Amino acid sequence: MGRRVLLIEDEPNIIEAISFILSKDGWTVHTHADGETAVDRVREGVPDLLILDVMLPGRSGFDILRELREEAAPDLPILMLTARGQQRDRDMAEQLGATRFMTKPFSNSEVLETVRALAGP
Amino acid sequence: MPERQLTGTRLRNRRIDRGMKQSALAQAVGISPSYLNLIEHNRRRIGGKLLSDIARELAVEPEMLVEGTASAVRIPLQEAAGEFRSAAPEEARIDELVARFPGWAALIGAQHDRIAQLEARVQRLTDRLTHDPQVASALHEVISTVTAIRSTASILVDSEDLDRDWQARFHRNLDTDSLRLSESSQALMGYLDMNADAAAQVQSPLEIAEAEMAARGYAYPELERGEASPEALSADLPDPRARAILRNWLSIFVEDARHLPTEAFAPAARKLAHDPLRLARMFEQPLDRVFRRLAALPEDGDHPVMGLAICDQAGVVVFQKPMMDFHLPRSAAACPFWPVFQALTQPGRPVRRIVGLPGASATAFDCAAVARDFGPPSFDGPGQVVATMLVRPVHPDADTSPALVGPGCRVCPVEGCTARRQPSLLQDGA
Question: Could A83 and B140 be called an inter-chain contact, meaning their C-beta atoms sit closer than 8 Å?
């Protein structure tokens, strides 16, 4: 079983595409689409890496990030995904403790390289 | 907001500024110090010769001392000075500026107001793009769908060993996402179009005058019948510059109608299939006048919809009647391939072209244009060449090969255009 990545994203076809490329790279991909229960989902089993969308139904990705950093997963590598590339969003993500920030639309190779880099050797 | 000063107070301040004693000023103008004291404390009114005498002694224009006459000009000047302190304006001398150069002071104030209007417009547009939840939501939908399409398409291209089930699955995803993208982008465009009126709330005088004519359907039967005047029909516009522009256009309308009255022109236009050249010959009138009268015909079953554009010698569009997709940009340079600009290069010689905007669904337009020199005959000076273009839609079934014209470089997708002035937002690397 490969290292575990949890993808919190609500767009089914993005979920499918990212899951496919990461699985092919040897990752075990878990997915979750609801913002409200996202923190609980992480607590159930902290993954090796979290990919977190900003705009989620029920709760903002920034709120989830804040709570994770405060208690559940202070050291977990977290890659934030957003359709908004504004500087203030980047600043907010950095301030709240995101490890990396990526703007949609991105390429598969960007995602793959970033995930590999964040997970370490 | 500066405190409004009464005449007496202003007079007193001016005297003190100049280090002049009350008794000395009173003696100089032949009144008692106690009477001057009453004036300075606003307990006696002042005007006429006494005001002029006091103003002369205080080395100031009388208007500068009179309550209210200058404050309407002074306030925007003070606001302008406050906003551009880096320019180090002599704020203490605003009164002097108003009194000595009232025209320049009014101009600075008007420009200050205009800047404020434009800033408000920019702010509204910016807010719309950054804070409007509808736009944000629609853009998020578009970008998310594009992300899914990009990622899925890359998988299909890069994965040589993809089995049939996965291939079919990703193809289905592409199909649903492309449909979704089409719907979400149309929804976004529809929303932006719907709000175009709100964005245009702050308009230039030219736009205000055009909007007024558009609201009337470019038809003024009462002018033709002599029951109203251009002055009367433009009087309701609050902006004096817009009023002057509208009055000018309506005067041209009256003159055109006098030579080509609707009761004779409309049936002839119908009979001659709205052919401007034949109509010009028939009525022995200049072609540009025929264009304007054709564009002013009522848009009913008897007459097709027709647009009009008029530009001056510098290529600035000074009037237009938009129609369907036809609309020349006002704030940016238009595509030079529109025949109206070609006509400018050959005054007196008409140009006719079938043109089309890029895009499969765009309508083709039959454009006829002519330029005429309205200046007095002279060997000196640049002349006053004005080009007028009549625009008619080409029937969708007509067998034509329209020449390509663009909507303006910034939003034009045509690649390799020899007339491109700047990169397009719609192309890579823009």
Answer: yes
Q: In A1-121, which ranges are continuous DSSP H helix?
A: 12-24, 38-44, 61-67, 87-96, 108-119
* Chain B residue with the nearest C-alpha to that of A12: B148
C-beta neighbour count of B212 within 10 angstroms: 19
List CB contacts of B224: < 8 A, sequence separation 6 or more.
B254, B257, B261, B262
**For chain A, what percent of residues have pLDDT higher than 70?**
96
Which of A29, A60, A108, A112 to mutate to test binding with chain B, by most B CBs within 10 Å of its CB? Answer: A108
* Domain locations in chain B as residue ranges: 7-115, 132-199, 304-430
Q: What ranges do the domains of chain A cover?
A: 4-119
A54 vs A86: CA distance, rounded Å: 13
Residues 6+ apart with CB under 8 A from A7: A15, A18, A19, A22, A29, A30, A31, A32, A51
**Gap from A100 CA to chain B (nearest CA, Å):** 18
Q: Which residues of chain B have pLDDT under 50?
A: 1-4, 428-430
DSSP B96: H
What average pLDDT score do residues A100-108 get? 91
Interface probe for A, chosen from B135, B149, B151 (most Cβ of A below 10 Å), is: B151
**B305, B390 contact by CB (below 8 A):** no
Give CA–CA dist B119/B125, Å, rounded.
10
Domain B7-115 -> CATH class: mainly alpha
Of A20, A24, A104, the CB nearest to B147: A104
- Per the DSSP assignment, residues forming a β-bridge with A32 are A8
The distance between the two most distant Cα atoms of chain B, rounded to a whole number of Å, is 110
ipTM of the complex: 0.88
Cis amide prior to A12 (ω within 30 degrees): no
Contact at CB, A24 and B159, closer than 8 angstroms: yes
Q: Which of A121, A55, A57, A40 is nearest to A93 (CA)?
A: A55
Choose the CATH number for B304-430 among 3.30.450, 1.10.3470, 3.40.50, 1.10.1060.
Answer: 3.30.450
CB contact under 8 A, A13 and B148: yes
Residues 133-152 of B with CB under 8 A from A: 136, 139-140, 143-148, 150-152
Contact: A11, B151; criterion CB under 8 Å: no
Q: Which pLDDT does position B356 carry in this prediction?
A: 84
B-chain residues within 8 Å CB-CB of A83? 139-140, 143-144, 147
Judge whether residue A18 has pLDDT over 50. yes
Q: Which of B143, B169, B170 faces A104 most closely, judged by CB atoms?
A: B143
| C-alpha–C-alpha distance, residues A84 and A25, integer Å | 27
Task: For an interface test with A, give the residue of B146, B147, B162, B170 to mutate (most A CBs within 10 A).
Answer: B147
CATH for the stretch A4-119 = 3.40.50.2300
